[in-house]
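Section 5.1 Outputs to date
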Amino acid sequence: MNVFWKKGPMFVKELKKEFSDQKLHYNTLSTIVRGLEEKGFIDHEQFGNTHRYFAALSKEEYKKKTLGNVVKKYFDNSYKNVVSLLVEEENISLEELKKLIDEIENTKSDPK
């Protein structure tokens, strides 16, 4: 996705050049691109028998959608379960969590 956001619309042939160090086969990359399209992350324009692909979502929209999918799939659609795991695994301290709660409360109480 980063390649599409950075470079814009691309044919699979052009995309392959972006990953030349990984030696991905054209068909493999084409399958990945079609999978991203099926998920609604990218779209295409048709030029004869070929397609030029482009990002269908902004980076922010992509983040929200993928995070939502992870929460739904692995955390019973509960953000509370996500935060609990982050605290348990010490990926976020209680102090950081309290600061985040304060920021959220201040944002909600601040009329714009």
